[in-house]
Structures are given as structure tokens and as C-alpha cells.
């Protein structure tokens, strides 16, 4: 028995080393591909569209917002194992914080004053405010377990957009949020004055150096694209360090077994609250950026479906594994906001191209190919999701532990070992 | 002064009273065992000491300071390590990460590393498997890991809940050997066991729990010879 066990241990060890090496190199490959893709994407889009790539570059920056959101929700759901169904609420809080203090909105409020605080400051304020709301929501509710917490966050996700709609014109405490109209004409980001000029003073005859406006309106999408890329890199570094830190290990422990974590000295309430606050702060960050790029915030952009979409990105990409979650976010965004949105037009053109123009017209119950496809949008999306989760229940690029858990070989090995020793 | 004093503690789970006026003391350097049948309140006593359950009445004192009702992480900081019932290792974390988690309340990296070596010294199997995911360990190895994890906080008092449960006889002997060794290096131990004979062989003193009450106490030797204990727990 001893010899057999020894050999089993040896093969397990080799398998582990192999699996962990492959896992690390796989993540490195994903990151490398993502970096190359991000660097080439703008030029590629310009070439493909014949110099009209701006639309697609801007779309990619919006996809980046969802990448940030997915990284943030991953800290709550993937690392700490807390199911948050109202994550879009924190996204809304970040976006509205920026919108209110970087537009003419508050002129209409009882303050009668408009604020134009720079984007860079508000990015941090947005993070801070969202984190505070994370704590406010978390403190009374994190004693709840699994399903109950999910319901409470679901409620919070519903309350925030409703409250934002209510606090518009005609609310008893004044117009703070623009109500159903939202907030428009939000300031774009500006580089600090030392970089942009005017270096020789406004209107002086010596103002010969053209003001270097990095955020030239004509080049907006590209600027937002690069800004987004930098923010994503910052967030990846932050999230990865968090995962490998003492806090990250405590999150994992709480996710695995709360009682054992407490018995090991982890203050479980505080550590869950930290996960909630940090997750919320990522959403606040993303929200401020989103408000700046869209230059418009409206409660419609933060409905329940947004929370669900972000959760799908995390689960489908591979809960707990940051590169997996990023790929999940990009794929889901592309599917939902690019492919499915354009599918009606694409199928119509295809039908025209192959000479089936008859399909495009309405006949009786048939409302025309374009509208028929549009009707089926969510059905197609649902089928794709079901198919992916059936084929890869652990997500596309799962974390190491999840992978091993679902790997049959490892499990059988454990059962074998257990029997060998205990019977 | 006794290391730990539990004084007339009542503990409830909801409306069910699990402990009725339990009192016990543990002195420095002892191995004390708590024996009793299923549902007698052994685990509840341990949970009350470690803060996982809170006493409704009575006191739990560590070197005279009342720790009854403190949160479990505070209790760990005060120097009580708890290897809970059913092992409860972090199944999807590696053996080393489990051990590091046990040292969560400490910040001295060098001390943590040397204590990791100490645990590997007690349990060489864990060293072999240090990078393995804990859920894939055998039952015996998981028990070793649970004890090792509790040791990583460098506790003055170590609470062990049924360390031999479900293990092969040869492994039970190994575990008890290590328990004695841990004790001889200066850690006081409170041990819960269904295997009363084994427990009384390694312990200095023992308490017998029945339906939430201490019904008998004494030196391990006296309990081993007591006819009541022999009849009820030793099967003689």
C-alpha cells in the first residue's frame, strides 16, 4: 500500500506542477494577446473601414467600461463569493456623481450653482462615493447569507435608478439628478493645464504656441480609447495585487468556509465589507468614465439588465480569474451590443445580396426579416448563453482552483487516496 | 492562575439550551480532555470558548480576562487556536495557503515561515503536498492540515474537536503522537474525543459531559479506572 501511495503522490505532484505551469502560461498568453489586440485595434479599424474607424474605436472604449465593471464584480462574486445582483447601482452612483459635479445640472438644484470639477478629481471622488455606498449597503446586510444577500442587492439595484428618476424636477427636495431626462452636456476630461497650455497666457500677443488640446473633440473616440486602456491596466494591476494579498486570501477563505475562516482569526464581517466596498469602488470608477465619454447619464443605462449582463460576463469568462473575466466582458459586450444589435441590418443586407428581397417585406404575420430578427434578439442571446454554460460550465478561462475542481482526474485521485487510507 | 477558566456557562442554540452551568479549568501545559456521547455539548463548549457561540450566562476567562462573547477573530488574537469539528479545511485553496490563513492574525513573516516549518515537522505528509489543493487531500491529511492551521496562530491554548473522527487506526495513533509532541513543546491542549480511551491515555485530566452538564471530573488515570466511565465510554 505504501508503494502504491507513493506513486500516486508522485503522479499527483507532477500533474499539479504541469497544471499550474500551464495555467500561468495560459493567463500570460491571454494578456499578451489582449495587449497586442488593444495596440493594433484602432489602426486596424481605420484600415478596415477606410479611415472611418472612429465609431468602432468609441465602441471599444464603451466595452472597456464593462471590462472595468467585470473586474470589479469579480472581486465581490469571484473572490469573496458574495452574490451581488444590483451591481449596476454602484455604476450609476459613480456616473451620477461625475454628472452632477461636472455639468450645469446643479444650477437647477437648490444650490443654484453649477460645478465643473475636473474629471481626474471626480474619478477619485466617484470611487470614494461608490465605496461609501458599498459600505452603507453592506454593513446592515452582510450578516445575511447567500440567497438573502442576493435579494437585498437586487432591491438596492432597483432602488437607485428609481430614486434617481424621482429626484428630478418637481421632487420635494429639488432637482438634483435631472429625473427621467438624466443629465446632459457633461464635461469631457481635460489634461492638466501644465500639459495643455495656454503656456503664454490667454490672448496675449505672445500666445504663438498652439494650445495642445489632447482631448480635441475631433479625436474624441481615440483619446477615450487610450485613456480607457490605461485605466484598465491600472485596475488589472490593482485587482491582481489584491487577489494575492492577505485580504485576497481572506476573501477566498470566507468564500470556502466562513466558520473556519472566523476560527482562523478572520473578521468575516469586516472582510466581506471590504470586498463590497472595493467592488463598488471599481464600479464608481467605471461610472465616472462612462458619464464623461457619453457626456450624458440617464437612469435607463443602469437598469437590472445591466447588473445581469455584468454577472454573465464574470460567470461566463471564468469566475475568479481576472484575464478570463476580461475576455468574458469583451465577448458578451461584442455579442450583445455589436452582433445582436446589428444582426437585423446584416441579415437584411444578406437577404438582399442573395436576391431574397421578398423576405425583407412584410407578408401577413411575417413582419419582415429585419423586425423578425430583432424580435428574436434575446432568444438568440439566451441560446448562446445556455450553449456556452453547457459546454464549459466552469467558464471560458476559469481560475486554477475551479478548473481542478471540475477536472475529473483530480477528483478520482482524491477518492482513491481516501479509500486507500481509511478502509 | 489557571490559563482558562470556564465558569457556570449556559449556551443556547436558538431556544435549545446546549450547556447548563458548565465549569472547567485548564492550567498551563496540560492536556485536558472532554468526553461524552453525541449531543452532550462537547463541541458547544469548544465553540463557546472560541467565540463561535456566545454564552448566555457565565464567564469564560483567559488568564483572568473575560473573553466570553468576543468575536472569534478576537479570541484567536488572544491566543486560542481552534481546529473545528469536521476539519473544515479551505477545500479549494492550497495546503500552504491554508496554513498562511491560520497565521492571518500575525504579521511577522519570518515567524510565520518558521512555524510553517514546525508544522511540516509534525506532519511530513503536508510538506510533500504543500502545493496541492486541500480538497484533494485524504481525510487524514485534511485532519493534519486542520491541526496545522490552528497551530499557525501560535496559540497558547489549542482546541481540538474530534481529531480522530473517521480515520484509520494507524493514523489515529500518528495524530495522538503529534498531539503529545505539540503539548510537550509548550502548547496547552483541550481535546474533545469520542474515542475516550485514546483521549484519556494522552490527557492529564478529563471532564465528562452529559446532556450539557459536567457530571464527573478528575485525573485521566482516575477516570480510566472509574466504573461509570468504563461502563459508559470505554465499553468495559
Explained architecture:
- The complex is a heterodimer of chains A (423) and B (236).
- Chain A has helices spanning 2-48, 54-79, 88-101, 119-141, 146-166, 193-196, 220-244, 246-256, 258-263, 268-294, 304-318, 322-353, 369-375, 377-391, 400-406, 408-422, and strands spanning 102-103, 115-116, 183-184, 296-297.
- Chain A has 423 residues and is an all-alpha fold.
- Chain A has a two-stranded antiparallel sheet with strand order 1-2.
- With 236 residues, chain B is an alpha/beta fold.
- Chain B has helices at 42-50, 72-78, 95-102, 109-122, 124-128, 139-151, 169-184, 196-202, 220-225, 227-234; strands spanning 4-13, 16-26, 31-35, 55-62, 65-66, 80-83, 157-161, 188-193, 205-210, 213-219.
- In chain B, α3 (95-102) runs parallel beside α6 (139-151).
- The longest helix of chain B is centred in the C-terminal third of the chain and has 16 residues, at 169-184.
- The model of chain B has no long low-confidence stretch (mean pLDDT 93).
- Classes of the chains: A mainly alpha (423), B alpha/beta (236).
- The interface between A and B is large, with 37 and 40 residues.
Amino acid at each position: 500500500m505504501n508503494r502504491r501511495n507513493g506513486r500516486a503522490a508522485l503522479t499527483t505532484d507532477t500533474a499539479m506542477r504541469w497544471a499550474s505551469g500551464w495555467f500561468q502560461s495560459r493567463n500570460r498568453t491571454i494578456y499578451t494577446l489582449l495587449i497586442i489586440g488593444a495596440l493594433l485595434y484602432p489602426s486596424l479599424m481605420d484600415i478596415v473601414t477606410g479611415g472611418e474607424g472612429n465609431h468602432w474605436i468609441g465602441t471599444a472604449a464603451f466595452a472597456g467600461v464593462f471590462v472595468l465593471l467585470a473586474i470589479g464584480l469579480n472581486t465581490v462574486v469571484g473572490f469573496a463569493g458574495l452574490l451581488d445582483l444590483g451591481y449596476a447601482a454602484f455604476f450609476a452612483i459613480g456616473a451620477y456623481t461625475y454628472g452632477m459635479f461636472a455639468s450645469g445640472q446643479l444650477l437647477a438644484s437648490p444650490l443654484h450653482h453649477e460645478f465643473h470639477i475636473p474629471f481626474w478629481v471626480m474619478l477619485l471622488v466617484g470611487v470614494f462615493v461608490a465605496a461609501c455606498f458599498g459600505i452603507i449597503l453592506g454593513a446592515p446586510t452582510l450578516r445575511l447569507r447567500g440567497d438573502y444577500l442576493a435579494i437585498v442587492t437586487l432591491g438596492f439595484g432597483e432602488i437607485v435608478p428609481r430614486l434617481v428618476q424621482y429626484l428630478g424636477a418637481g421632487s420635494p427636495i429639488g432637482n438634483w439628478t435631472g429625473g427621467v431626462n438624466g443629465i446632459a452636456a457633461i464635461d469631457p476630461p481635460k489634461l492638466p493645464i501644465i500639459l495643455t497650455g495656454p503656456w503664454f497666457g490667454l490672448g496675449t500677443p505672445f500666445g504663438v504656441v498652439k494650445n495642445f488640446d489632447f482631448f480635441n473633440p475631433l479625436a474624441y473616440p481615440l483619446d477615450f480609447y487610450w485613456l480607457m486602456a490605461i485605466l484598465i491596466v491600472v485596475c488589472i494591476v490593482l485587482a491582481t495585487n489584491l487577489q494575492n494579498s492577505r485580504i485576497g486570501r481572506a476573501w477566498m477563505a470566507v468564500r470556502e468556509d466562513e466558520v473556519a475562516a472566523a476560527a482562523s482569526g478572520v473578521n468575516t464581517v469586516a472582510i466581506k465589507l471590504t470586498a463590497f466596498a472595493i467592488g463598488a469602488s471599481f464600479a464608481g470608477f467605471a461610472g465616472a468614465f462612462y458619464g464623461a465619454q457619453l457626456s450624458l447619464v440617464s437612469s435607463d443605462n443602469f437598469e437590472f439588465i445591466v447588473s445581469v449582463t455584468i454577472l454573465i460576463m464574470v460567470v461566463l469568462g471564468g469566475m475568479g480569474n481576472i484575464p478570463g473575466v476580461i475576455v468574458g466582458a469583451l465577448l458578451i459586450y461584442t455579442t450583445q451590443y455589436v452582433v445582436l444589435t446589428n444582426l437585423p441590418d446584416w441579415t437584411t443586407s444578406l437577404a438582399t445580396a442573395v436576391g431574397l428581397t421578398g423576405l425583407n417585406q412584410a407578408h401577413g404575420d411575417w413582419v419582415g426579416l429585419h423586425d423578425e430578427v430583432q424580435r428574436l434578439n434575446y432568444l438568440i442571446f439566451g441560446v448562446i448563453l445556455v450553449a456556452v454554460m453547457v459546454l464549459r460550465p466552469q467558464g471560458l478561462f476559469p481560475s486554477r482552483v475551479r478548473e481542478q475542481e471540475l477536472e475529473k482526474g483530480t477528483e478520482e485521485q482524491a477518492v482513491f487516496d481516501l479509500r486507500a487510507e481509511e478502509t | 492562575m489557571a490559563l482558562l477558566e470556564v465558569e457556570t456557562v449556559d449556551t443556547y442554540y436558538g431556544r435549545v439550551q446546549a450547556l447548563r452551568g458548565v465549569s472547567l479549568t485548564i492550567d498551563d501545559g496540560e492536556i485536558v480532555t472532554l468526553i461524552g456521547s453525541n449531543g452532550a455539548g462537547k463541541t458547544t463548549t469548544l465553540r463557546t470558548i472560541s467565540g463561535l457561540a456566545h454564552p448566555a450566562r457565565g464567564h469564560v476567562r483567559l488568564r483572568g480576562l473575560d473573553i466570553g462573547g468576543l468575536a472569534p477573530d478576537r479570541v484567536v488574537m488572544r491566543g486560542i487556536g481552534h481546529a473545528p469539528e469536521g476539519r473544515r479545511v479551505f477545500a479549494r485553496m492550497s495546503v500552504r495557503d491554508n496554513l498562511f490563513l491560520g497565521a492571518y492574525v500575525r504579521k511577522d513573516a519570518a515567524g510565520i515561515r518558521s512555524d510553517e516549518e514546525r508544522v511540516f515537522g509534525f506532519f511530513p505528509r503536508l510538506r510533500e503536498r504543500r502545493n496541492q489543493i486541500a480538497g484533494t487531500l485524504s481525510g487524514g491529511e485534511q485532519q493534519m492540515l486542520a491541526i496545522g492551521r490552528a497551530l499557525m496562530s501560535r496559540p497558547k491554548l489549542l482546541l481540538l474537536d474530534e481529531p480522530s473522527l473517521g480515520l484509520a487506526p494507524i493514523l489515529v495513533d500518528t495524530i495522538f503522537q503529534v498531539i503529545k509532541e505539540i503539548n510537550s513543546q509548550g502548547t496547552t491542549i483541550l481535546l474533545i474525543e469520542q474515542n475516550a480511551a485514546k483521549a484519556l491515555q494522552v490527557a492529564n485530566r478529563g471532564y465528562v459531559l452529559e446532556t450539557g452538564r459536567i457530571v464527573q471530573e478528575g485525573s485521566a488515570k482516575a477516570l480510566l479506572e472509574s466504573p461509570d466511565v468504563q461502563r459508559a465510554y470505554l465499553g468495559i
